[in-house]
Amino acid sequence: MGFSGTRIRNVSLPDTLREIGDAFSDCRYLEEIEIPSGVTRVGLLKGDESLRRVVLSDTVDNFPKTLFYGCTSLNKVEVSSGNPKYSADDFAIYSERGTCIDLFYASGETSFVVPEQVKKIGLNCFNDDSILLEELTIPGAAEVFEDRAVRDQILINCYKDSPAHEYAKSSHLFRLLDTQEGTLYFEAGESAMPEAERVLTVGSSIGRLPEPTKNAESFAGWYTQPDGGVRITERTIVLETTTVYGRWNTQGNRIVLDAAGGLLPGGLEKDYLFVQEESGLGLLPVPSRTGYTFKGWFTQETDGEQVKEGEAAKTDVLYAHWIHRNSYVTWLSANGGWTSEEGISWFEGGAIWHFADSGQGLLYL
Predict the structure, then answer these.
(1) Structure-model confidence comparison of residues 222 and 129, the more confident one
(2) Contact 324, 291 (CB under 8 A)
(3) Which of 11, 88, 175, 309 could serve as 79's disulfide partner, Cβ 3.0–4.6 Å?
(4) Are 286 and 266 in contact, with CB atoms under 8 Å apart?
C-alpha cells in the first residue's frame, strides 16, 4: 500500500493492518490520519504539510524520530492512554522514559517551554527547519542531550551549570535563569543608536547586537575598548556590567557575508568586511553548518557566481552555499542494477551531482 505523493485528503485504515511504512509521506493534502489498534510500526509522515491531526493507537511501539518532519500545519497529536511506550501533550511526543522524541505545533509560536516530565531531548527534536521556534526554555530535569538535538539558531534559556547549560555553551546563544543581572552599555559616539543599553543575566551570551548608523561612515563592529581590545559577537558572554565601544570605517566598501543557515566564526549568522576600491577580497572566513559542507561564497543566495579570495566582490552581499551531507542517493550502477549509498549530493546546472565515499561522480540528467 502506498499513497506517497498523492492528493489524498482523508483515509480510513482497516484494523487488520500490523505495520505502515512510509506510505503516507509527502501527502501534501492529507489532513487527518488515525492509526488503528493492531498496528505496531508507523513510517514517516514527513512533508505532509496539510496534516492537522494524528491519532496513535495503544499498540504503536515503533516510529522514526523524525516522524512529523515538515508537517507544518500539525496542531493535534493524540496517543491512546493505553499505550505503554508513548504519550503526548500539546507540543510533543514522549517516550516512557521522558525522552522528547518529536516536536509538533503550527500555531506560529516562537518560544517553547520544555515540560518538567522530559528527562532527555532526543536527536533532531528541535532541529526541524520547518518550525518557527526562536527560543527554548529547558528545566533542570533534562539531563542528557544528543548532538543536533536543537537547531543552532535557537536561543536556550537554562539554569547555571545544568546539563542544558553545558550543552548550550558550545553551540548556542543562551540566557541563564537564576543569576544576577548586569547592564551592557553601547557607546558609539555621535551616531544614531537603536539601543543604548541592555539588561542581561550575568553569564549569558549577549545575543543579537545593535547596529548604529553614521553619515559617510560604515560601522565596523563592537569592541571591549575604544582602541585595541577584543571584538565582541552575539555569543560573547557577559560577566559583569560593562561598556562596549563601536568603531567606524571611513574608507572602502562594506561587503556583507551571509552564512545562509550556517554560522560564521564567532557564532555570527552575518558579518561584514571592508574592501578598498579596486582591491580584491582578502582572506574569507569559512562558516559551518550541521549536516552540510561549505561550498564557497556566491553573489546570489541561490545560483549566482562564486567569488574567491583575491577577486573583486562584484556585489554588496556574498552568500554561503552548502552541500547537504549524509543523504542516500539511488542510482543506476555500471552493471545495470540499482544501488543506494550514502554520500554528498547537491543540485547544480539542472542536474543532481552525487559523490560517494568511493569518489565516483554520478550525474542525473
Answers:
(1) 222
(2) yes
(3) 88
(4) no
